[in-house]
Structures are given as C-alpha cells and as structure tokens.
Amino acid sequence: MQVEKYLNEIAEREGTVHLTLIDPASQSPEEAAAMAFAAAQGGTDAIMIGGSTGAGGVLLDQTISKIKEVIDLPIILFPGSASGVSAYADAIFFMSLLNSRDINYITGNQVMGAPLVYKSGIEAISMAYIIIEPGGTVGWVGDARLIPKNKPEIAVAYSLAGKYLGMHYTYLETGSGADGPATPQMIASVKHALGNNMLIVGGGIRDAETARKCVQSGADMIVTGTVVEETSDVTGKIRELVSAIKK
Ligand code: 1GP
C-alpha cells in the first residue's frame, strides 16, 4: 500500500497529485530518463509508464531502470495489456477498462497479468478505467464504447460500478493527445458520486488553466503526457501545471 498511501497523502495535504506519463515506445530509455528527471525538477509527484502499443518487454524494463537511476519518485505502471507488467516498477495501476466491448480489456489481460504482478511483488492499485470521447488510440485499441462528452450520468454510472466493485481509483480518460479532458460538469458529477474515492483525470491537458479547471471540478489527480513529450522545457511546463493545481 506504500505508493497508494503516498499518492493519497499528497492529495490530502496538497489538494492534488500531478502524474507525468511517459510512453516507453516514444523515445529511448535515456531520453525517457532525462524527461523524468526534468519532470521531477518541476515538481511532479510520480511517473506513470505505459502506452497502448509497443510499451512492453525489454524497452519497458530498460526505460524504468534508467529512470530509477536518476530520480527517487515512485514509478507506476499504466499497462495497455498484460505485457505492460515490469518487476522494475514500484506499483501498477491494476485497471479494468469498464466500458470496453472486449472482455480481454475488462478481465482477460488482468488474468494473464495478475500472476506476473504477484511474482514481481509490485504493489497493485485497483482502478476503474473509463474512456470518454474522442478516446484516441487507447479507445480504438481497447474497443471502448466511448461515453459521449455531454453524458455525465453515464460516466457516473460506470464510476459507481467501479467503486461498488471495490476499485479504489477511477480514471476518466479522453485519450492521449485529445483536444481536452472530460468536461467540468462530468468531472464534478463523477467526484460527487465517488465521495472519498480518488478521481484521476487525463487526456488533452496542456496548460495551467485546463488543469486548474479539472481540479476545481473535483479531480484528485491530473495526468499529463503529450505536453511533456512536445515541450522543449519539461521542467518549466510541469512547474506551470503543478503550481496551478496545488494548494
Ligand atoms: C493518456 O490521459 C493520458 O492516457 C495523458 O494524455 O497525452 O493528452 O496528456 P495526454
């Protein structure tokens, strides 16, 4: 429970957690380590590692090892499938894509990956993963029945189902590189239903104002990935986002 406790305590103390997502398939392990180092300098709270395609195997292990050489922050797996498990990480978001049409993304990959998680000894943090339109690559790969942006009640129903199934975290995802995150109304409705359960919001958050709106609506944790990959000043960009969302 160490990483989950760490995240929850930051949310409690500072109002919000900032997570930096790095896709091992997007750059070399050395470049990923440099990004993680710069993100840590900017004040991010933990590094998420994963992607929908090509984010497993040796590249995944090497990316985590290189990041661990340069920072002490927790490394949390954000797997696209059972191949996204690595013993080098500290924890894994053990997630089920609740609105997938494909049983492999609801329980199949989880069954294949669970013994690997058990053997590796990494911490599993249970998470309901819910994809909102447009959904991007992860929506396509995960065969998600995308929740319309203007239907918060459907997102609430899925979030409550996840909570009642015992999942601790809920992730509202619009897809990496989306034009924006879930709407303030959807975030607020879901957080209201979740109560003390943690709400993560990600997809298309690129600036302080957007991040702040998510937090004011009820997000406990904010994920940014694309903006970190695209900027020439990772530390400055993360600092901008972090200062907008922390108490
Ligand atoms: C994707 O929600 C994350 O799974 C992050 O999205 O790449 O758009 O920041 P971005």
UniProtKB/TrEMBL annotation:
Question: What GO molecular function annotations does the UniProt record carry, in alphabetical order?
Answer: heptaprenylglyceryl phosphate synthase activity; magnesium ion binding; phosphoglycerol geranylgeranyltransferase activity
What cofactor does this chain's UniProt record say it requires? Answer: Mg(2+)
Q: Which InterPro entries match?
A: GGGP/HepGP_synthase_I (IPR039074), GGGP/HepGP_synthase_sf (IPR038597), GGGP_HepGP_synthase (IPR008205), GGGP_synth (IPR010946)
Keyword Lipid biosynthesis assigned: yes
Q: Where in the cell is it found?
A: Cytoplasm
Has keyword Protein transport? Answer: no
- Tell me the keywords, alphabetical order: Cytoplasm, Lipid biosynthesis, Lipid metabolism, Magnesium, Metal-binding, Phospholipid biosynthesis, Phospholipid metabolism, Transferase
Please state the pathway this protein functions in, per its UniProt record.
Membrane lipid metabolism; glycerophospholipid metabolism
Under Pfam families, the record lists: PcrB
Q: Which GO terms describe its cellular component?
A: cytoplasm
Q: What class of enzyme is it?
A: transferase
Q: Which CDD domains match?
A: PcrB_like
Task: Locate the residues binding Mg(2+).
Answer: D23, S52
- In short, the EC number is 2.5.1.41
Catalyzed reaction equations: sn-glycerol 1-phosphate + (2E,6E,10E)-geranylgeranyl diphosphate = sn-3-O-(geranylgeranyl)glycerol 1-phosphate + diphosphate
Primary localization class, coarse? cytoplasm
**Highest taxon of the source?**
Archaea
Alphabetical GO biological process terms: glycerophospholipid biosynthetic process
Q: What does this protein do?
A: Prenyltransferase that catalyzes the transfer of the geranylgeranyl moiety of geranylgeranyl diphosphate (GGPP) to the C3 hydroxyl of sn-glycerol-1-phosphate (G1P). This reaction is the first ether-bond-formation step in the biosynthesis of archaeal membrane lipids.
The family this protein is said to belong to: Belongs to the GGGP/HepGP synthase family.
Q: Which HAMAP family match?
A: GGGP_HepGP_synthase
Cross-referenced NCBIfam families:
GGGP, GGGP-family, PRK04169.1-2
Protein's UniProt name: Geranylgeranylglyceryl phosphate synthase
Organism of origin is Methanomethylovorans hollandica (strain DSM 15978 / NBRC 107637 / DMS1)
